[in-house]
Every structure is written in C-alpha cells, then in structure tokens.
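User: My instructor asked us to take a sequence, write out its structure as tokens, and then describe one feature of it. I'm not sure where to start. Here is the sequence I was given:
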Amino acid sequence: MNDRVLVTGGAGYVGSHACLRLAEAGFEPVVFDNLSNGHERFVQWGPLVRGDIRDRSAVAAAFERWRPVAVMHFAALIEVGESVKHPGRFHETNVGGAANVIQAAAASGVEAFVFSSTCATYGDPVRVPMDETHPQAPLNPYGRSKLMIEQVLADMDTYSGLRSTALRYFNAAGADPEGRIGERHDPETHAIPLLLQAALGRRPGFSIFGTDYDTRDGTAVRDYIHVLDLADAHVSALRRLLNGGSSEVFNLGTGTGTTVRELIDAVREVTGRRFEVAETGRRPGDAPILVADNKKARETLGWSPRYGLEDIVAHAWDWHSRREGEVFGLGGNPV
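Assistant: Let's start with the prediction itself. The structure tokens for your sequence are:
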C-alpha cells in the first residue's frame, strides 16, 4: 500500500509535529511548504517540496510527482489580528489555497483528507464545554476562512466522494520532548511562548488582557493541548479514513480550562523565574471561556490527551531555553 502523505504546511509548528508522528507510524510525509512561516530545519522525516498552495500548477505538480494516498492540510495564515487587518489576504490563502489542494486531491484519487481547523469557527461560546454541535458563528476572518473550508469539504464528500476529517483545535502548545522541533513564530503571539520569553528576559514582561471576566480568578480561561497530542489525533483520524471511515469533525482539547493567572503560576513553577506581569483591559473579541468537549474524539478515534499543563510548559521551556537556540544557531548560552 502507498504510505505517502502530502503534508501542506509541514514545516510549521503543528505540521512538523504531525510529520514526526506520521513517520513513527510508518508513513512517509512529503512536506509542501513555501517556508513563509515554516522552517526548513523542521523538515526531518521526509522530502520538502517548496511551493505555495495559492499556485494551482505547483500544487497539481506535487500530486503528480508524489502520488500521495492522503493529505494533511495545515498551510494557512493563523494570526487573528492580522486577519482583521488583511481579510483579503487571509481568504486568498486559507480559502483559495485550500481549495486548490482539495481539488487536486480529488482529481488524483486521494482517499483521505485531514484538515487543520480551529475552535475559532465557533465564535462566542453559548455553552461550555463546547462540543461539535455548538453553533458556528466566527468572530473574525480567520475563523470564517476555516469554516468555509469545512463547508467545502462537506460538499466534496456529498458530491465528489472525497472523505475528510476536520480537527478543531483549541490552544496548541508545548514541543517535542526530545527537542528536535518546537514552536517558533515571528512575531510571537501565543501565551506560553510569550511567558517563557519573559522568563528568559527576552521581553520586558507579560500582559494580562482582562481581569474582570466571570471566571474563578477574573482572567480568561483556555484549553491548552499538547502539540504531540494533536499530532496523535491526526494520525488516528488518517487511519480511520484510510480504513473506510466516514467524514467527521472532532474537537481536540483536554477538556480542562486554565486561567491566565494559573498559566502564569505554572510557568513560574516550572522555570523557577520571576518576571513582570501587567494588567490591562480586555481585547475585543476575546471570549471569557473556551474549553473543549472532547468526548467524540475519545470515543470515535480512540484518542485521549497524554500530556498535562505541567508537561506542556516543561517541554516548551526546554525548547525555548535550550534547544531553539541550538537548532537555529542563535548563539548564547543555554539556560
């Protein structure tokens, strides 16, 4: 059987960890990435094809050359704030580019399509924890772009027979415990890397946006899921589709919420560092609580998260304090 999987955006954060797990599961990940946000150093488990998903001919050529049995589609713009500033750019990549990949997959007879989606498709929560039947009313172009592709995939299943799985992530975090790959964004906007940079003295401190939410300590609650737990779910979803499973959507989260203050405490505990924390007003569009109901993924995929918050922070700390500088040749002394 052909064991080749085309991984768009496989040089990025979640995509590279998925490639790691694919290789461990006996698949050959072929990374298709323009390296605008990904890193060539993260492509360690298969070939790299440099290309842009907006380029239909380049996408078609990759399918013709590699003949994958399946696709994992990660390539996308992800910064919510940027999506508000540049909605056209986001739809060009996240919708138009994804449509190119989907059409090429269908044309080449691909048997399974795993899509990197997001809990941002839900918008403001009307109930918590949020299951897959929660209303989808995105608050920004980023969330809408992902929802549009979920809808495209549903149509492709109904009318073209392309079976797919959409995986709605909550807050991806952590790093490979062996330090081979990790999180590296520029600019960085995710809470755990920002906190660790503050702990390392690479930024002056950390800001809490909103301390008056109706939560246990007044700060927003999020569901942090280890990136390798996400990767494991992708492989499980892929195997299910290749074994004839129907198209589905799944939430990927731990089902446990962590407040911003609790996250700060966890970082201080793991690192042993103290750093400045500023309190400021809420950001527009920030929901008070986002926590996954992951029952469907547990029951249907046989998947469950293995790592807790302390593991997530510890693995990220090892990456940012030691391995990131070594991998990227940044110099300086590891912590």
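For the description part of your assignment, you could build on this observation: The chain has a mean pLDDT of 95. Try explaining in your own words what that tells you about the chain.
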